[in-house]
Amino acid sequence: MRTRIALIAALAAGLASGGAYAADGKTVFGSTCVACHGSGIAGAPKLGDAAAWGPRIKTGIPALYNSALNGKAAMPARGGNPSLSDADVKAAVDYMVGSVAGGVRQQGAAAPAKPAEVRPAEKKSAPATAADGRSVYHGTCSGCHTDGKEGSPVLGDRTFWIPRIKAGKDALYASANKGKGKMPPRGGNNALSEADLKAAVDYMVLQAIQSSQTAAAVPAPAAPAAEANTFNRLLRAAGKRNLPPADDGIHDAANDGTHLLQPPAQAFTVFPKSTAGNGVNWVESLSQKKIAPRYDRKDPAAAPVVMDLNIVREVKGSMPDVVYPHKQHTEWLDCSNCHPAIFIPQKGANQISMASIILGQKCGVCHGKVAFPVSECRLCHSKKKETAVSQAGTGK
Amino acid sequence: MPERFFKGIRATALAAAAGIALALAVAGADDARAEYGDVVINNFSDAAGMRPVVFPHWFHRIRFRCKVCHADLGFKFQAGGNQINMVKIIDGEFCGACHNGEIAWSVENCNLCHSAKPGTPTQVHESTVQRLVAPGGVQPAPARK
Predict the structure, then answer these.
(1) Interface mutation vs chain A, best among B22, B54, B108, B127, most A CBs within 10 Å
(2) What pLDDT, in 10s, does the model give residues A10-35?
(3) Which domain holds residue A356?
(4) Which of A173, A202, A225 is the last residue of a domain?
(5) For residue A177, what are the contacts with CB-CB under 8 A and spacing of at least 6?
(6) Which of B25, B77, B118 lies closest to A213 in CB terms?
(7) ipTM of the complex in this document
(8) Nearest-CA residue of chain A relative to B19?
(9) Rounded CA gap, A18 and A225, in Å?
């Protein structure tokens, strides 16, 4: 299963490799927002759909920026891509608004301020921007950055640029603007506008990303030629599970508090195992009383209201049907956690598909986040089909 | 494994995957191997000069059912979606409903909560989409409450 997931990721990376880092709205849209706004998944207003956008545009562009930056209903903050800067997200909103601006205006529905807001955005997303960055670069910055004069980072040098890009483009803009070390403010060219500078930095960032694009799909970056044909190109190395906080890549080992936190492996030794997620079978841990999580914040004696009701969802194709068990869920959760926000409490009333689960909706609100992950197909697809034998043939 | 299924997934999830893989190129998911379900909360911390917060689900679910936090205390199912800040915490909301010196250690232990590497974005670690495509991950979740 993991291999498959990794493969999907690789494919995805392939698709994205045409992408760019330039903060033009179209690119950002194509990289992140298209996932939902391309087809209208989860009720997202579709690109170019004036009827869907009209009423939203009326609430004002700042409100739209705000929704896109902070998330709204099924839309996660920044479309779920935290590496986007505010400017990137706003540019993508401008692009989407621009896609329907004509239609909205025809209906005479647009608030007067909108067309004016849209036009600069359209300009910003024009390919001219990229060219500008390039020409600003060659006009001012290349003097140092092309061959590393004064110890400047060389254009396209990933080892220098990637960690800095990670820290956020705003920091790079700021350095270019104010100067840093031996680099004078604005590369010594005070005639440059802030937009020029940003364009130049975007261009430099883009060069760094493009030079590393092939490496993106390969876990071992900058692998020498001999390692091009490693056995597992995409499968992540096994064994690194339940790492102590200081080594897990998210906690800061330089923080004293980190070393006081409990290493998960120490807590998990007595629990029944599973092969995914935390590596713990939480259902069994609970039923074997290895854990006694409180049902009430203060009262250790409060007991859950468990409801034993299975809902069978028939699945088209070869996969076994899904049995949704209320029992295991109501051990942990309150009815209001699912009803009605995630599921209408009526058998068959909810449309559920694997794609939505993978995108973090329906069962995927929890499974793939906190409850056992999507890779455990058979925990959900647990009911053999009566016609399983004949169907299996068609599924291969 | 049915190929058709993966074609279906490609059509939809891939769209999500497509560009977000850019983040893979940029932010390098490879090294972080924190516990499944660890939530990093960083709406305000970085900007305030504090390390971002790491909330470990595994640790808390050993002690509490989901219901306590997600129904009784009103935590929405969305990483970063609760606009938590320190005033709310010392007033007994969110983490402060327990980290009050009665049920669990109190707020002066800043570094136990504020323990992430500076700059770590808000995320649910190891979430499906994060594993598929991006270190930051797509974390759609329904708005509730």
Answers:
(1) B22
(2) 333 332 333 333 357 888 888 788 77
(3) 310-387
(4) A225
(5) A185, A186, A194, A197
(6) B25
(7) 0.77
(8) A31
(9) 24
